[in-house]
Design brief:
about 45% helix, mainly alpha, two-stranded antiparallel sheet
Length: about 160
């Protein structure tokens, strides 16, 4: 997937790395960034963490030098959209918990977004939040279901 007219390596300047990265073993021997091919964890597409992207990530954004890409650009953008939706759910929850705790569409949407994120990120599932939302939804369903009618009285046995 390399593009023409794009170098597959660029010089590295570890002095521009984050403070934590400058304390890593890589600080002493990294002289250049090279394209790194990988397979997207979500869609299995072949992708490349380009040397230019690495330079931007490690020197400008100062992300940890240990960071590796696992998602292609399309999947990464979708995972960020999901994270944004989750953030919005959490803000709404903080502002209106009593009302939202009985709002089935809101709770279902939030739970769905948590489940969707797990398909993009192979770590840190938010089990506690998923359990909370599942219990709230189960309680709402139990309240919505009519009570089970009592069985009709049985007639006394014939003698």
């Amino acid at each position: 997937m390399t593009q023409r007219n794009r170098p597959s390596s660029v010089p590295a300047n570890p002095s521009k790395w984050s403070e934590k990265s400058q304390q890593s073993v890589a600080y002493g021997f990294t002289r250049e960034y090279r394209d790194i091919a990988y397979r997207c964890w979500h869609c299995q597409a072949d992708s490349v963490f380009t040397a230019q992207d690495q330079q931007h990530t490690f020197e400008l954004r100062q992300a940890s030098i240990d960071q590796r890409r696992i998602l292609c650009t399309t999947c990464w953008l979708e995972s960020n959209r999901i994270r944004s939706a989750l953030h919005e759910c959490e803000e709404q929850w903080a502002a209106a918990k009593p009302q939202l705790s009985v709002d089935k569409p809101f709770l279902s949407h939030w739970l769905g977004q948590l489940a969707a994120l797990e398909t993009y990120v192979p770590y840190k599932p938010d089990t506690a939040k998923k359990n909370m939302l599942s219990k709230l939804l189960a309680n709402l369903s139990a309240r919505a279901s009519p009570a089970t009618p009592a069985p009709p009285p049985s007639s006394p046995p014939a003698r």
